[in-house]
């Protein structure tokens, strides 16, 4: 996976001098720019990934600017209960007369916050544990990997549900729980990369030069393991959005009145809503599918673009 | 082989112990004590303390853990806080429906994924390939609960073809056809998720194999393309798919919670949701342990099947 980047880094290292070789991973030197350029060029070939990126960009802009673009206050209770879509309420209103479109836009904030926030936590934990485990090996590796095994043997959604029931449901808790329980995949992935990277000559050279362990880990090894981490994180965002939606749908995630695509679907468990008020449950469901699909396409595009095995 | 299985079992023991520890800690973080849920709130505090002492709830946490673990080994999972039934009995009654649901979903998922994956691999970049790949992405991206609601809307409410929930029709004969009708929608929901993930898996696995020399030899000998793909290539391409057994069990168990909840399927997923809503911690602990046990067993089984199916892998 990381072979190509390693070779480019080695090339940069020969001109860069001691210790600097890996710091230049993405931007500064000419060689690395061509790697970034290649990734961009190959990413652009993946039409669906580009489409996904465009959709997610629009969605993020919408979420950030939500207070200025929503047609109504998403918490404003009005007389018009369960009103059908009209010029006034483009997607109708819910059981207490709140504008569905406005809630849909505000809910995008929740999904993006959960996706980014929890993945930031889980990838950080996974990366640090994977680095330590792979680099030091031996007992440390054994201990970290057994803990990973333990966390992987719980069906994730079940463990999440139990923890939520113990600590109580809220947006912050959902982010923290998804973050602190979702690191196992990243840990294994990073460990695998580190095991192969630490055999490279430039790492051995760093050790021989007497560089500190943190410096070798974070400045020499980590930048070369970034590609798989980034791909893993992207798929992680998609997974977190689905998890949050499922939790909120079950009433154990983001709590009303805060709008989340998941909790907007909760009411559709009643058959009357399901049959006669499709504007209440179809839009949030479609938003979940579209955003998760987009993020998955972006992940697929990144994987293809950064995989040195598929040189095009 | 036997030595390998024994070694794997020995590794599984500390992992399972770790599972019980985490399980115990998480549940003990829960606010309130079981005693407060069992008795009249007007009981004097001294009596509550006495009851806690009698139940061992004032012991240090590690002692409580050991007591609980010993009980678990004896098959005693305690009593439900809501129904007062033995937890083991409650789970025993519900495990059958869940295993049926998961097993069928697994078969349906693979029955969709394997042929589509092969077609996709043999006709790379054709319209069918794009359709299958796109379909697989959709299968991954659509949440269980939304798909379930959509299917209920179409097949139960609009077309009135299939029941929207339960395992048998109440007051009906509960015959085979009736049961089958109740199974279709939940199995479709869980099966779609599996198929979505596996289509691309089968596809890349077949593509890898198709480039190998022994297939070129087979073609050179004049073996028909159909036989090359479906006999020579497939046998090796399907080996990695064995790993799905281990990988899918935890996902299926999680999916079962949501799906059983929506379709009122009387399995362990629905029991999990009920226990969470009622804060029925003894039941939850047993359910978590059972789930972890099933995952570990599935992983072990996968590795064993894998080593039997693929003689190239040598375990020491």
TrEMBL record, chain A:
Family to which the UniProt record says this protein belongs: Belongs to the binding-protein-dependent transport system permease family.
Location relative to the cell: Cell membrane
Region span, Disordered: 1-26
Primary residence: membrane
Biological process (GO), any one: transmembrane transport
Residue ranges constituting the ABC transmembrane type-1 domain according to the UniProt record: 108-299
Entry membrane topology: Multi-pass membrane protein
PROSITE patterns xref list: ABC_TM1
Classification lineage: Bacteria, Bacillati, Bacillota, Bacilli, Bacillales
Comp. bias intervals (Polar residues): 1-11
Pfam families, alphabetized: BPD_transp_1, OppC_N
NCBIfam families noted in UniProt: Opp4C (NF045476)
Any one cellular-component term (Gene Ontology): plasma membrane
InterPro entries: BP-dependent_transpt_permease (IPR050366), MetI-like (IPR000515), MetI-like_sf (IPR035906), Oligopeptide_permease_AppC (IPR053523), OppC_N (IPR025966)
CDD domains: TM_PBP2
Membrane spanning stretches: 48-70, 110-136, 157-182, 279-299
Name assigned to this protein: Peptide/nickel transport system permease protein
Keyword entries, A-Z: Cell membrane, Membrane, Transmembrane, Transmembrane helix, Transport
TrEMBL record, chain B:
Pfam families per the UniProt record, alphabetical: BPD_transp_1, BPD_transp_1_N
Keyword Transmembrane helix: yes
Membrane topology: Multi-pass membrane protein
Keyword vocabulary terms for this entry: Cell membrane, Membrane, Transmembrane, Transmembrane helix, Transport
A GO cellular-component term linked to this record: plasma membrane
GO biological process: transmembrane transport
InterPro entries, per database record: BPD_transp_1_N, MetI-like, MetI-like_sf
Location of this chain's protein in the cell: Cell membrane
Domain ABC transmembrane type-1: 95-302
Transmembrane segments: 9-30, 99-119, 131-156, 176-195, 237-263, 283-306
Keyword Transmembrane helix: yes
UniProt record similarity statement: Belongs to the binding-protein-dependent transport system permease family.
Protein name: Peptide/nickel transport system permease protein
